[in-house]
Amino acid sequence: MDFNSGGKKAIERLVEAYGFGTRQALCDHLGVSKSTMATRYMRDIFPADWVIQCALETGTSLNWLTTGHGSKQASANTNTIEVEKYLLSDGALQKDGFYIFDKGFLPSTFKKPLVITDNKSELICDKEFEDIRDGKWVISIDGEITIRDITRLPGGRIFVEGGNRAFECKIEDIEIIGKIISLTVKFV
């Protein structure tokens, strides 16, 4: 993150976090002049001191105040992890919020977890992996994202099945997005 910029958006998030309607109300609360606020806003100077104060006073997530990403409300439980959630629709992944998990629920070996949902299931995946092994994977075939079973073959080849037709290819012929660790199926 570049703390030499991003002031405008951060100030707008501060206004939202406090529940104010204007930057003037934020000035009054922080005890700063309108010109100080205007300088930081117009020059896009990141207001680190105000962001910290707001996080302490409101319980708003420091990550959200700083970057605009993640859940707005900070978790009171430090044994939780916030995991990005994506919707798989028409062969593409679209950001769809976040899930908060107890750290004990997810394997400690997870490096970059994500959740992918579609109309019938929820998949907990790890985007960072050391090797491709037999199992369920999220892959991209010619830019279309799909869930498939992969079997590792000799010579750097894999067998891909789970779609209309199974096929064999080199690992480099497809893009591996993540290893599926857990699958929850919806029966409703």
UniProtKB/TrEMBL annotation:
Pfam families: Phage_CI_C, Phage_CI_repr. GO terms for biological process: negative regulation of DNA-templated transcription; protein complex oligomerization. Residues 83-181 form the Bacteriophage CI repressor C-terminal domain. One of its GO terms (molecular function) is DNA binding. Transmembrane segments: none annotated. InterPro entries: Lambda_DNA-bd_dom_sf, LexA/Signal_pep-like_sf, Phage_CI_C, Phage_CI_N. Residues 10-72 form the Bacteriophage CI repressor N-terminal domain. This is Phage repressor protein. It comes from Klebsiella pneumoniae.
